[in-house]
Amino acid sequence: MTAIVEAAGLTKRFGKVTAVDDVSFSLEEGGIHGLLGRNGAGKTTLMQLLTGQDFASAGRARIFGENPVENAGAVGRTCFIKESQVYPDDFKGRHVLAVAPRFFPHWEADLAARLVDAFQVPLDRRIKKLSRGQRSAIGVVVGIASRAELTLLDEPYAGLDAVARRRFYDLLLEDYAEHPRTILLSTHLIDEAAALLQRVLVIDKGRLVIDADAEDLRGSATTLVGRAADVDAFAARHEVLERTAIGAIASVTLAGLSAEDKRAAASAGLEATAVSLQELIVRRTGGAVTEEVSA
Question: Which of 166, 192, 154 is nearest to 54 (CA)?
Fold first, then answer.
């Protein structure tokens, strides 16, 4: 398949701060993928590099096989919507929808109208007078209705309440099913978006720490609870992501347990539970932790 997005040794420094640090990955055509990580991890900077909105300090970015910087042809096939999207001071919502077809050749006006109704977007009010949630809704409308070949959504839905965010996920998935394209979704609300994702990229302190299929990650870590001595004896043979203890009882999260390992844990009297994608990423980006709590 064709690589739509490529990063090779991509690095961005702001003075002494390295916002993106030697990141390399590629995304093939099609799919909804997640760029996950904490706030401030470097997600927005990475997306700006991929879309030519900033210059790399080192390495290279490619979209559709081309350098995106000052490349109208490649960027014209892309829609990049940010939470902090900026519009002209006198723009109203209807102005945004009126100019959108000039930038997005696959713009679907009927879909935009349905989305406006779904999110109750006030189109005749100046954008600078809108609430954060209403501005987010405008970004969501543009991001979905653009039907751009490559769509990058940098948490534009973060201002929406939980009900509206669920509506966003449902509508995005519904339209993607009918009109497949390549979507890169940035979020720190991992559990909410997990079911949509086919590929997961996790960035932490500017570095890419996970690049894997979402299905492979689900259930790839397990938490075991039992007597501290039994837990520690079992954990000694495995990769420990986190350990806590309260008196004589310990809990340990381990990576990569096989079915045979889990049967052995049960035989040792340990209780096993699967770790969610969000919990796994928190542990991966937070590092292994050992915490002793007095009873």
Answer: 154
pLDDT given at position 264: 92
Q: What is the spatial distance between Cα 121 and Cα 47, in angstroms, rounded to a whole number?
A: 26
What whole-number distance in Å separates Cα of residue 206 and Cα of residue 37? 10
Length of the chain: 295
Rounded to a whole number of angstroms, the CA Rg of the chain reads 22
Token pair for 202: 């996790």
Give the Cα separation of 187 and 277 in Å (integer): 13
Entry pTM: 0.85
Q: Which residues of 160-173 are buried (b: 16+ CB within 10 A; e: fewer)?
A: beeebbebbbebbe
pLDDT of residue 286: 67
The whole-angstrom separation of Cα 240 and Cα 256 is 10
Give tens-digit pLDDT for 226-285.
Answer: 999 999 999 998 989 888 999 899 999 998 888 899 999 999 999 999 888 888 888 777
Mean pLDDT in residue range 21-38: 94
DSSP string, the chain: --EEEEEEEEEEEETTEEEEEEEEEEEESSEEEEEE--TTSSHHHHHHHHTTSS--SEEEEEETTB--TT-HHHHTTEEEEETT----TT-BHHHHHHHHHHH-TT--HHHHHHHHHHHT--TTSBGGGS-HHHHHHHHHHHHHHT--SEEEEESTTTTS-HHHHHHHHHHHHHHHHHS--EEEEEES-HHHHGGG-SEEEEEETTEEEEEEEHHHHTT-EEEEEEEHHHHHHHHTTSEEEEEEEETTEEEEEEE---HHHHHHHHHTT-EEEEPPHHHHHHHHHH---EEEE--
* 198 CB neighbour count, 10 Å cutoff: 14
